[in-house]
Amino acid sequence: MSALTLAVRDSSTMLRRNLLHARRYPSLTLNLLLTPIMMLLLFVYIFGDVMSAGIGGGGADRADYIAYIVPGILLMTIGGTVVGTAVSVSNDMTEGIIARFRTMAIHRGAVLVGHVVSSVLQSVMSVILVGAVGVAIGFRSTDATALEWLAAFGLLALFATALTWIAVGMGLISPNAEAASNNALPMILLPLLSSAFIPVDSMPGWFQPFAEYQPFTPAIETLRGLLLGSEIGHNGWLAVAWCAGLTVLGYFWSISKFSDDPK
């Protein structure tokens, strides 16, 4: 068998392993999934009228705010899901299974690839579930074409891949699962400091540069433009650049840490 065939075979085995773990221990995934759903329901039904009035500068319309907030919640869902990946990687590194894998004829990168592909699949499924909740409470995207829907799905998958590689690196440097969860906390906090809930130009002037020039804001604005027909502008290129940069950074960081000899 060629090296590529062996790598694909071993990566597929590790992918099945991680999917079985997710199925047998669903509590972490469910807890992380409940956060964006609760945020969506909270902001729509408790703050929806007030927020829509403030954003639109006119009468309160909860339907307008549902349309505004759902794209941000979808990307927040990805950020929350990859926290579980950091915890899973940290568990593998501290519980001895990686030491066992190192003694076996397994492609070294297969372990990380299995975690990444599993996490991306879980992120996509989580986005679909949260999106279904959004549709159930009134979100509609009637103006989006099939091509725009395909581009939106591609952006979500690309963003999930980028954050997953960063989460893998965080898991590798964490001494235990609790530390991994804490290290990955920015994945959940950054959407709160972006344009997910209110426009950047309505924030305090000193805070606007941070909110605008972070990975979540251009991705949210691009997804919002694809689904709702709003202006995308330079955000599309910024979102792709952030995804590419974070993927490359996370990949080389993870490979470097995983290749280090265990102490």
UniProtKB/TrEMBL annotation:
Main location per the UniProt record: membrane
Ranges for domain ABC transmembrane type-2: 27-261
Keywords assigned by UniProt, alphabetized: Antibiotic resistance, Cell membrane, Membrane, Transmembrane, Transmembrane helix, Transport
Pfam families referenced in this protein's UniProt entry, alphabetically: ABC2_membrane
Transmembrane segments: 25-46, 66-89, 110-137, 149-172, 184-200, 236-255
Membrane topology of this protein: Multi-pass membrane protein
Location within or outside the cell: Cell membrane; Membrane
InterPro entries registered for this protein in UniProt: ABC2_TM, ABC2_TM_bact-type, ABC_2_transport, Nod_factor_ABC_transporter
Family of this protein: Belongs to the ABC-2 integral membrane protein family.
PANTHER family: NODULATION PROTEIN J
Protein's UniProt name: Transport permease protein
Native source species: Streptomyces amakusaensis
Lineage, uppermost ranks: Bacteria, Bacillati, Actinomycetota, Actinomycetes, Kitasatosporales
